[in-house]
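Example complex used in Figure S2.
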Amino acid sequence: GQNIDQPTEMTATEGAIVQINCTYQTSGFNGLFWYQQHAGEAPTFLSYNVLDGLEEKGRFSSFLSRSKGYSYLLLKELQMKDSASYLCAVSHISNFGNEKLTFGTGTRLTIIP
Amino acid sequence: GAVVSQHPSRVICKSGTSVKIECRSLDFQATTMFWYRQFPKQSLMLMATSNEGSKATYEQGVEKDKFLINHASLTLSTLTVTSAHPEDSSFYICSAVGTGNYEQYFGPGTRLTVT
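Predicted assembly (228 residues):
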């Protein structure tokens, strides 16, 4: 089966930097997604990592180590609007041979002034 | 581009009735659509994978006779919750993947409340 772990809640200060970690154990790994989800809304795409290393996109960066089964999402220059849940999702091949996403429990990030 | 819509956005129904939720890819053809369910303060749980023109693949523990999925065209998949019960109340989200693409584009979700 698939096992994805991330912290349940985190708090950070406006203007600061926060790192949200995600560890996974999975078979048929294709890549790892990070999504942002505000309450009552659908997830929105933040990043996708296939190879090891850091992918930077503006204030958001995502890192992947396939050998360690580890990823993190780094948010810089935090803004109040960054308060949301951040979902780590692993793309893998299912037992039926199709590609699917398995989501972690999500990390609820609260930004304080 | 890559917009996915869902209808309705919110629905309240009585216990024992059936509810149909539509998921449409508006500007691309979706060979595969996924249906997720999300309970409050929990993450998304995949219910089923739907490929156009074939039967849906259900995840373990999801009753295929209760959650009917029809993917009749490359732009439309429907989820019908049959004989709904209060415990079916949840946020249902669909996503769609285009041909040769890896990214899932999510719909805005449908909040179902069964009274």
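Chain B touches chain A at residues 32, 34, 41-46, 49, 51, 57, 91, 93, 102-109, 111 (CB under 8 Å). The mean pLDDT of chain B is 91.
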